[in-house]
Amino acid sequence: MTQGDAEPIRLPMAELQVAKAADRQFQLPKEPPTEDYRKLLFELEAAGEIEVLRVPEPFVEVDTKFGRKKKVPLENTWHHKSCGQCGHIPGYSTSIFWLNREFGFNYHDPREQTSCTAWNYYASSTSNPAAQAAVACRNFAQAKLDGYFPLIHCGTSYGHYKEVRAQLLHHPELRNQVRKILARLNLPFVFPEEIVHYSEWVHVMREKIAERQVRDFSSITVTVHPACHYHKLVVEDAIYDADLYDGQRTAIVSGVVTALGAKVADYSTWHDCCGFGFRHILVSRDFSRSFATIRKIERMKEEADPDVTLTHDTGCVTTLDKSQFSTQAHNRNVGIPVMSDAQFAALSMGAHPYLVCQLHWHGVDMKPLLEQMGIDHEKAWKEFEEVADKLEKSPESYLTWEEV
Amino acid sequence: MNPIYKDARYTEVPYEEKLKLFDAVKSDMRYPHELHGCYECGICVAACPSARFFDFSPRVFAQTMAREDVHSFYELLNDNVWDCSQCFSCTCCPRQNNPGGIITIMREVAVNDGLQSAKDALQAYSRIIYKVMSTGTQVSPDMLQPDFFPDWGPDVRDVSLNLDVWRRAIPPETMHTVELAWDVSEKTRLELYMIWKLTGNLEMIENVDEGLYMILEEVMEELLEEHGYDIDDFDNILED
Amino acid sequence: MSGKVMVIGGGPAGLEAARGVIELGYECILVEQRDSLGGSPISASYAALTPDMEDTEVAMARMIDSVVGNELADIRLGNSVTAVEGSAPEFKVTLQSDSGSEIVDICSVVVATGFKHFDPGRETQKYGYYEYDDVLTLVDAEKMLKSGSFVRPSTGEAPKTVCFVQCVGSRDRQIGNQWCSKVCCGVATKEAIEIKHLLPDCKVIVFYIDMRMYGFWEDLLYWKAQEEYRVNFIRGLVSEVTKRGDTIVVKGEDTTMGRPMEVPMDMVILSVGMEPSDGTLAMAELFELPLECHGYIETKGGPLNTVQTPIDGVFVAGTAAGPADLEDSISMGGAAALKACAFIRRITVTN
Q1: Domain A37-198: CATH class, spelled out
Q2: pLDDT in tens, C7-35
Q3: pLDDT of A89-111, one tens digit each?
Q4: Residue C112: which of C274, C270, C319 has the closest Cα?
Q5: ipTM confidence score
Q6: B213 lies in some domain
């Protein structure tokens, strides 16, 4: 070998250009790195262990994190409600139902439903896997008996049921326990083919919602907060879209905001939790409040100055909204209205801000936002008050769907 | 075996007592999925909300458990385990550990053992446990009281003043409730109680709050009896 | 029997294997898919080699020169192996190029088809490579260093702060890449020194889990970076890269200090690891070579035989068999050449 006398190869300088982010093209892996839970579910079904509740027609297939398709049903949904939404943010659940009604979709709002009871799992740990799996499967069995497919309103129930699914798939002893319990309850052992969150339904419906849009949202800037239990706790079946964040972050919520012509503004703590903390929001609230305002709201305000922040889970709406009042008293840079994607979508389609979206249950002042949406909130509030007056006078009466 | 740290706490608690609880965590069905090993990259701490406001580190949990440091485990079990937000941001761990999941198990062990620190942590929490177990829902509308949420501003007062009417001014039929988030049928509550009994959940409550246990037992017994069931027929099947 | 060795792949390992074969007096067909030799160091525009920092083009030209023009070397650029029939010592291998296909007879094979750089979009952590101009990979940074102008792609201005994030796509159970890619610690440190050389006032930080600076890399690179160039090494990885206004922010934990941190940065360089290249996987399939548990070509004989595959007459060299630095790749190239020739010689002598 001769040393040093070879001519060096010189590449043209043009080849040394580094691509800008917009020109970089992300390729999904050929093989997802996670197991396919549906395959395992169907294997258990074939072995006679459980019954798999199929996603009913019509459904939309949508991309998930690693490129697998997920079926999201449009109709015939069994609405697995959320405690926090129904109890403290009633316009949240109402908006989901209102959207279904507007589209003429058949759905069921059951009384034979409990929450996931994961408050006793994540907050107090006064439960155990067998109880949690039995609670989940009791709800699923009821959905099957009612002839509908579960649509989960709560982010935590959604994440928790996916954890339950993984535990059931991998632990025959747990399946045996749940089977025994369900037998005592005279219920079938069924598990849905997909665990579907209502925000996934909103996501797949976004174009149809936009077609029915009657209010102009083009001047509205939105910051999005994705729920941890949606996109961090069992990641593989969260919705991703190559056209949103290059498929690098979940497309949930951002998708419908974009479809409705509003602007999604980014901020540096997008990935951060809201600070809910389960037990913290109730008995250690200084933590939740500090985290929500210092890490989330103030950052959004400083970096994006949004007109509203949207999220898709109960705890996140509560924490981000309710934490702002006392923080404002300290002259901190807060004051961003908080609502769910479902309420935002309903407003775009002309829903009443108080009778449907029930915005009077929220803490931060929504009036400037409503004005920006072209809503006469004074008139709307008068309408609500008239309804309230009427109801006050006749104690056994209720506001009906026909009236809204 | 003695603690390795000079400033170790709980030196008065016998090693065997600590080991018993440590083994209870380790033998849990979920544990092998929650901890593999830890090379201390700190990613879990970076993603953790609690680490920013408390003396709390998911990395320390993972590392302590991986080292099988029983003494430090006992310190975490008493002093830090209730600070976790259970958001599972730490599941981004490249080793696929789940420090939040380890903590769920540790809390269950603390509750089952009736540790004083667990009782203290859950002291203000009885009402929530009661709601969840007796109704299957939580976050009821009547919880919105200005004295419970003074920092949530004047609309909590507005809601509580108008609660009855405002609840009736919501269109879905299932949500005209004040004491429950939604109207849960009696049949469903009955099934829920059977689940609590069959999985030993009621005994868990007995360990941390005897008063609450007695109230719950009574409520459950009553409904079961009303429907012709005997509460004693629903033994914990997990012990089979 | 043709008596020929085929070397597949014209990178460092393949070039060294080819050089070995012809120096031992055997005929060698060197197949390269690209239109030029030199492998990743040339095609991915590495500025200088690790650890001695010699100009890549000078060093690789020397290797290429030792093969090109030799009468025993039959070099096929722009050719791919598309089919294999028979077994050693009578393989019939189809070569495909733009001008058509050809079947050649060969006795033994050295597979040196290398690795590919990990795509940071598949990383479990959120590093924003597809969102932010100023987040780059080690490979992107090599290009810039080679051009002699190290600037923020977003502004064209020299950065005041740059950080490296180690183990991107390596040592990660979530994505299934459980291996250490071996070279990234050294390459990042080398690049850190090169940046400091170009921009002495720039603050450079390397975020790491373990700095793996084996043997002489310890003082030649690691100590040198610390002591002569004041590169900061912070033990703790980054979970997220986000943007705050015009500034990139990295979020991590300084594990030595036990404190969560948030650091504004002008540029972030992701130390992407290795994965088996598409060519490596294709050759494994064609020659029916089993893959070891990480997905690279399996060798038999453990640490005492690094180049013998379970298939008779087929040898592997370089990163096709697993993550390797240049030293390893070159050593394997030589060993594979020796064994590929010995395989032919054994048959010739026996016959």
Answers
A1: mainly alpha
A2: 999 999 999 999 999 999 999 999 999 99
A3: 999 999 999 999 999 999 999 99
A4: C319
A5: 0.96
A6: no
Q: Which helix (H) or strand (E) holds C74?
A: strand C73-77
Name the domain count of chain B.
1
Tens digit of each residue's pLDDT, chain C (351 residues): 889 999 999 999 999 999 999 999 999 999 999 999 999 999 999 999 999 999 999 999 999 999 999 999 999 999 999 999 999 999 999 999 999 999 999 999 999 999 999 999 999 999 999 999 999 999 999 999 999 999 999 999 999 999 999 999 999 999 999 999 999 999 999 999 999 999 999 999 999 999 999 999 999 999 999 999 999 999 999 999 999 988 999 999 999 999 999 999 999 999 999 999 999 999 999 999 999 999 999 999 899 999 999 999 999 999 999 999 999 999 999 999 999 999 999 998 876
- Is B64:B102 a contact under the CB 8 Å cutoff? no
Q: Which amino acid is at C304?
A: L
- Residue B107 sits in which domain range? 15-113
Residue type, A189: F
Q: Do the beta carbons of residue B102 and residue B62 sit within 8 Å?
A: yes
Give whole-number Cα distances, A211 to A71, A149, A256, A348, in Å: 22, 26, 12, 10
Task: Provide the token pair at A182.
Answer: 């369900």
- Is the pLDDT at A3 greater than 50, yes or no? no
The dihedrals phi and psi of C280, each to the nearest 5 degrees, come to: -60, -45
- Residue A152 has phi, psi (to 5 degrees) of -95, 120
Joined together, the tokens standing for residue B219 give 């409520």
Please name the chains neighbouring C, where neighbouring means 3+ C-beta pairs under 8 angstroms: A, B
Q: What token pair was written down for A339?
A: 């609502």
Q: What residue ranges of chain A are covered by domains with CATH 3.40.50.11810?
A: 212-384
Taking residue A368's Cβ as centre, other Cβ atoms within 10 Å add up to: 13
Instruction: Report the chain A residue with the minimal C-alpha distance to residue B144.
Output: A88
| Strand C232-235 relative to strand C203-208, pairing | parallel
Fold of A212-384: Rossmann fold (3.40.50)
Q: Identify each DSSP E strand in A173-235 by its residue range.
A: 190-192, 221-225
With CA atoms as reference, report the closest residue to B194 among B240, B137, B233: B233
State how far the alpha carbon of A39 is from the alpha carbons of A34, A43, A54, A190, in Å. 12, 6, 13, 15
Gap between the Cα atoms of B61 and B93, Å rounded: 13
Reduced to 3 states (helix: H, G, I; strand: E, B; else coil), residue B224 is helix
Q: Which residue has the tokens 């008063």?
A: B211
The contact set of C with A (CB < 8 A) is 19, 36, 38, 42, 45, 55, 57-58, 60-62, 64-66, 119, 121-122, 126, 128-133, 135-136, 140, 143-144, 146-147, 153-154, 174-176, 239-240, 242-245, 249
Cα A7 to Cα A10, B24, C10, C18, distances in angstroms: 9, 69, 18, 20
Residue A339: band (very low, low, confident or very high) from pLDDT cuts 50, 70, 90: very high
Tell me the domains of chain C and their CATH numbers.
4-114+277-350 (3.50.50.60), 118-273 (3.50.50.60)
Mutation pick from C172, C175, C253 vs chain B, by most beta carbons of B within 10 Å, is C253
Q: Which residue of A has its CA nearest to C135?
A: A21
Which residues lie below 8 Å from residue B195, measured CB to CB, with a gap of 6+? Answer: A131, A134, A135, A138, A181, A185, B201
| Cα C211 to the center of its chain, rounded Å | 18
DSSP code, position A8? P
Q: Which of C63, C117, C178, C244 is the best residue to mutate to test the A interface, defined by the most A CB atoms within 10 Å of its own CB?
A: C244
Q: Does this model's pTM top 0.90?
A: yes
Contact C253 B42 (CB under 8 A): yes
